[in-house]
Specification:
CATH architecture of the largest domain in chain A: Beta Barrel
Order of helices and strands of chain A: HHHEHEEEEHEEEEEEEEEEEEE
CATH superfamily of the largest domain in chain A: Porin
CATH class of the largest domain in chain B: Alpha Beta
Radius of gyration of chain B: 22 Å
Number of helices of chain B: 10
Number of strands of chain B: 8
Largest interface: A-B, 52 and 43 residues
CATH architecture of the largest domain in chain B: 3-Layer(aba) Sandwich
Helix content of chain A: 10-25%
Number of helices of chain A: 5
Shape of chain B: globular
Strand order of the largest sheet of chain A: 1-2-3-4-5-6-7-10-11-12-13-14-15-16-17-18
Structural class of chain B: alpha/beta
Shape of chain A: globular
Oligomer: heterodimer
Chain lengths: ~450, ~300
C-alpha cells in the first residue's frame, strides 16, 4: 500500500500549483486594470514565495520520503488489507460434462471438460475501530452457461476486546464446523472440495447470516468453545431449510420458514490445540449442528463431525519446508424426511489427506475419501456409495502464486461404468496484501 | 475454629503478597533474539517466551493455536516489524482477543521503530523484485549497536508498564550496553581480517552484520531475495566470484547447502554457516552468545 502516500502528496502539490496559477492569472488580469500595480506585484511576489516555500517543504518530504511517509502508509496498510486472488483450472475426465457435474459437486470445483474459472475472490479486511475488526469476501465466478455470477460470500465483524477470552462474530460467515468448511478455495490443498462436504453443505460450503460467541478457555493449552445461531434458509444451508424446490433423498423441499428461535440453525464446536513437541502440533475438534429441514413441517436435521489435524515441521526449516500435514474429518447426518410417512435418512463419510512439503515450494498430496448412506441409494449421485483417491503435486512459485496438477480416481455406484478418471491443472495468482500463512 | 477478623486480614495480606509475587510481567516475543534481549533487561521481573524458534526463518512462521493462548495471556508483545511477521501476526492478533497487545497500545512494541533501518527502497517496488521489504531490511538485530538500541526501547517500555522496577530495568540496560560495547571491541579485533573484504551471502540477511564489522556483501546466492538460485544464476555468480576473487560465502543454517557446495567445488569459495539468531544452534542462549558464535565461525575461516 506504499503507493497511497504519493496520491496525497502529489494532489497537494498539484492543488498548490493550481492555486499559484489562479493567483497569478487573477493577478495578471488585475495588473491590467489595477490602479496600484506596484503594490499588487509585491503582494503577488509574497504569495508566490509563500507557495514556493510550501512546495519546497513538500518536495523535501517527498525526497526524504520513506522514513516518515512509509510509517504512515504502513499504519494504513495494517488497518486495511485488500487482496484479489484468481483460481483457474483446466483438464478433462473420462465422463461427459453432465456426469462430471455430479462428481464434482463443489461450487468452485473444476466441473467441465476444458477450462473452468473456479473462483475470483476480492477480500477486504481491517480494523473498524477500537471495538471491531471486519472482513468482506466477494466472489466472482462463471457458471457453465458462461454467465458471471457475483456472490457476497462473507461479510462479518469480530469483536476485539471483550473480557474473559470471549469473542463475538456477526454477519454473513462460514459456520465454524470442522476444519475445512470455513477455508476459502485458494487455501485448499486440493483442486476440489471433499465429497462429504459437498453432500452435506452443498456447493458453496455452509454459511449464513447469524452470530456466534466463542470462548478461549483459561487452560494452559489452547481450548476454544464456540456456540452460534444462524439463519437456516438459503442455498448455502443445504441440509436445513435450503431453498424451495430443491431435492434431498427424493423429497422435494417446501418453502418452510423459521417461525421462532427454536427454528434457527444452532452450531457448537470445541477445538483443542497442543504442541506435542517443538516440531509437531495437533488440533482436535468436535462439532455439531441442529436445525429444521424443509422436507416436512416439523422435520429436523442433526449433523455431527470430528476432525484431527497433525502438522510436523522440520526444526531447521527453510520457508517452512519440509513439513508433513495430516488432516482427517468424519461427518454424520441424521435427516428426518417427510410429514406423512416419516423416514430418517442417515448419511456419513470421511476424508483423510496428507500434504508433504518435500522441498521449498513443492508439496505432494494424497487424499482418500469415502461417503455412503443407509438404504438403497445407488441411483442418487449425492447419496450413493462413493470413493475417491486424489494424488496431486503443487508448485508454489512464490508466496503469491501456485501451479497444481491433480488426478482423481472416482468409484461411484450411480455411474454406468462405476468409475471415472479425471486430470486437473490449476493455477492461482494473488494480488494485493500479503495472505496469511495457514497452519 | 472460628475465623476471626484478624485471621481474615492476615489471609488477605497473604493473598495480596502472593498475588504481587506472581505479578511478573508476561512478555511474548516473535523471535528468540527479542526474548534474549528482553531477558537481559527484565531479569527476574518478567516472564519471557518466544513464539518462534531461532532455528527457523521467522518470516515463514504460522499462527499455531498454542501461540493464540500465549498472546492472549501476554502483557507485552515485542515484534521485529518491517513486515517480518506479516504472514502470521495479523491473524494471530485477531484470534488472540487481547487488546493490551494490539498495535497502538502500550503492550505492543515494534522494535524496527527503535533502530535505523537499512535497505529502504526508493522508487517503485514490485513483487517481481522477490521478497523485498519496502520498509527496510528487517534483520537489524545482527548489529550489536542495534541490540543496545533495542534494549533501551524495551527498558523504557517495561518501565512504563511496571514503574515499580524502573531502576532495575535501567541498571540492567546500562550493564547490557557496557558489556556489549566492550565485547564489540574484542569482536572487531578478531574479525580485523574481514575489514573492507568483499563477501557473498546466501540471502539479504547480513547487511547489518556487514555494516557492524566493516565487510562488504557484494552479491547473494539468491538471484532475487527469496528466489531459489537456478543453474543460470549460479553460473553468473561463479564468473563473478572468479573475476573478483571472492573467497567467502556466509549463510544461515536453514538454507539448502547444495548451491553453496556447488560454488565451493567450482571456485574454492569457503562457506561459513553462521547462526542468524539466538537459538539457531545449540548453546546460543543470549544475545552475547550469538555474536560470540558468529565471530568464532568467521574467525575460523581466516585460519583455514
Amino acid at each position: 500500500m506504499f503507493q497511497l502516500r504519493y496520491p496525497y502528496l502529489s494532489m497537494t502539490l498539484v492543488s498548490g500549483l493550481l492555486t499559484i496559477y489562479s493567483v497569478t492569472a487573477n493577478a495578471a488580469e488585475a495588473k491590467e486594470s489595477a490602479q496600484e500595480p506596484l503594490e499588487l506585484r509585491q503582494q503577488i511576489e509574497r504569495l508566490q514565495q509563500d507557495y514556493q516555500s510550501q512546495i519546497d517543504a513538500l518536495k523535501k518530504r517527498l525526497d526524504e520520503g520513506h522514513s516518515s511517509s512509509v510509517t504512515n502508509s504502513s499504519q494504513q496498510s495494517s488497518s486495511l488489507r485488500i487482496g484479489l486472488s484468481g483460481l483457474f483450472a483446466a483438464g478433462g475426465s473420462s465422463v461427459d460434462n453432465a456426469t462430471l457435474a455430479n462428481l464434482q459437486a463443489g461450487g468452485h470445483d473444476p466441473k467441465q471438460n476444458g477450462f473452468t474459472l473456479q473462483n475470483v475472490e476480492l477480500s477486504i479486511a481491517g480494523t473498524v475501530d477500537n471495538y471491531l475488526d471486519a472482513q468482506a469476501n466477494l466472489i466472482y465466478l462463471m457458471n457453465p452457461k458462461g454467465e458471471t455470477v457475483m456472490e457476497l460470500e462473507e461479510a462479518f465483524f469480530t469483536t476485539r476486546n471483550l473480557p474473559a477470552g470471549l469473542q463475538i462474530k456477526g454477519g454473513q460467515y462460514y459456520t465454524e464446523f470442522g476444519r475445512q468448511n470455513k477455508q476459502h478455495p485458494h487455501t485448499w490443498g486440493f483442486v476440489d472440495q471433499p465429497v462429504i462436504l459437498s453432500r452435506f453443505f452443498g456447493g458453496d460450503g455452509l454459511r449464513s447470516q447469524g452470530a456466534r460467541v466463542s470462548w478461549l478457555m483459561p487452560t494452559d493449552t489452547y481450548s476454544e468453545l464456540t456456540f452460534g445461531m444462524q439463519n437456516p434458509k438459503g442455498e448455502t444451508v443445504t441440509s436445513f431449510l435450503n431453498a424451495e424446490g430443491e431435492e434431498i433423498g427424493g423429497y422435494t423441499l417446501t418453502d418452510r420458514r423459521a417461525r421462532n428461535a427454536a427454528d434457527l440453525l444452532y452450531s457448537a464446536r470445541w477445538l483443542g490445540g497442543i504442541d506435542l513437541s517443538d516440531n509437531l502440533s495437533m488440533n482436535v475438534g468436535v462439532s455439531g449442528l441442529w436445525g429444521p429441514n424443509a422436507s416436512g413441517t416439523t422435520t429436523d436435521t442433526q449433523i455431527v463431525g470430528a476432525d484431527l489435524y497433525l502438522k510436523w515441521q522440520s526444526a531447521y526449516s527453510q520457508k517452512g519446508y519440509p513439513f508433513v500435514a495430516w488432516h482427517t474429518e468424519f461427518l454424520q447426518r441424521r435427516y428426518e424426511a417427510g410429514d406423512v410417512a416419516r423416514e430418517v435418512l442417515k448419511d456419513q463419510g470421511y476424508f483423510s489427506q496428507v500434504l508433504w512439503g518435500f522441498k521449498p515450494g513443492w508439496v505432494a498430496g494424497l487424499r482418500w475419501e469415502y461417503a455412503d448412506a443407509d438404504g438403497n441409494t445407488s441411483a442418487d449421485p449425492l447419496r450413493d456409495t462413493r470413493k475417491r483417491l486424489s494424488p496431486n503435486l503443487t508448485w508454489y512459485t512464490s508466496e503469491y502464486s501456485k501451479v497444481r496438477l491433480q488426478y482423481n480416481r472416482d468409484w461411484a455406484e450411480h455411474l454406468p461404468n462405476k468409475t471415472a478418471d479425471s486430470v486437473w491443472l490449476q493455477v492461482e495468482f494473488s494480488l494485493g496484501s500479503h495472505m496469511a500463512h495457514t497452519f | 475454629m472460628k475465623i476471626s477478623y484478624k485471621h481474615f486480614l492476615w489471609l488477605l495480606g497473604l493473598a495480596i503478597v502472593s498475588g504481587s509475587l506472581h505479578a511478573a510481567l508476561k512478555v511474548e516475543t516473535t523471535t528468540q533474539d527479542l526474548a534474549a534481549i528482553a531477558k537481559a533487561v527484565g531479569g527476574d521481573y518478567i516472564h519471557v517466551h518466544s513464539l518462534t524458534k531461532g532455528t527457523r526463518d521467522p518470516h515463514y512462521a504460522v499462527a499455531k493455536p498454542s501461540m493464540i493462548r500465549k498472546v492472549y495471556g501476554a502483557d507485552l508483545l515485542l515484534v521485529i516489524g518491517a513486515d517480518m511477521e506479516i504472514g502470521w501476526l495479523p491473524s494471530l492478533l485477531q484470534s488472540a482477543r487481547n487488546s493490551r497487545v494490539q498495535p497502538g497500545n502500550p503492550g505492543y512494541l515494534d522494535l524496527s521503530e527503535a533502530v535505523p533501518l537499512l535497505g529502504k527502497l526508493q522508487g517503485p517496488v514490485s513483487r517481481d523484485m522477490g521478497d523485498v521489504h519496502a520498509k527496510g531490511n528487517p534483520h537489524y538485530w545482527l548489529d550489536p549497536r542495534n541490540g543496545v538500541r533495542m534494549a533501551k526501547a524495551i527498558a523504557l517500555r517495561l518501565g512504563q508498564l511496571d514503574p515499580e522496577h524502573v531502576t532495575e530495568y535501567q541498571k540492567n540496560v546500562e550493564l547490557f550496553e557496557k558489556t556489549l560495547k566492550t565485547r564489540l571491541q574484542d569482536w572487531k579485533k578478531t574479525l580485523q581480517h574481514l575489514q573492507g573484504k568483499p563477501i557473498i551471502a546466501y540471502h539479504t540477511s547480513f547487511v547489518y552484520l556487514a555494516d557492524a564489522f566493516g565487510f562488504r556483501i557484494i552479491d547473494e546466492v539468491e538471484p532475487k531475495p527469496g528466489i531459489t538460485p537456478s543453474a543460470a544464476s549460479l553460473a553468473k555468480l561463479i564468473a563473478r566470484i572468479k573475476k573478483e576473487r571472492i573467497d567467502l560465502l556466509i549463510m544461515e543454517p536453514y538454507y539448502e547447502r547444495r548451491s553453496a557446495r556447488y560454488l565451493n567445488e567450482k571456485t574454492g569459495l569457503q562457506i561459513a554457516v553462521i547462526p542468524q539468531s539466538v537459538g539457531a544452534q545449540a548453546g546460543i542462549e543470549t544475545y552475547i552468545d550469538l555474536f560470540d558464535s558468529i565471530v568464532k565461525n568467521l574467525k575460523f575461516k581466516e585460519e583455514n
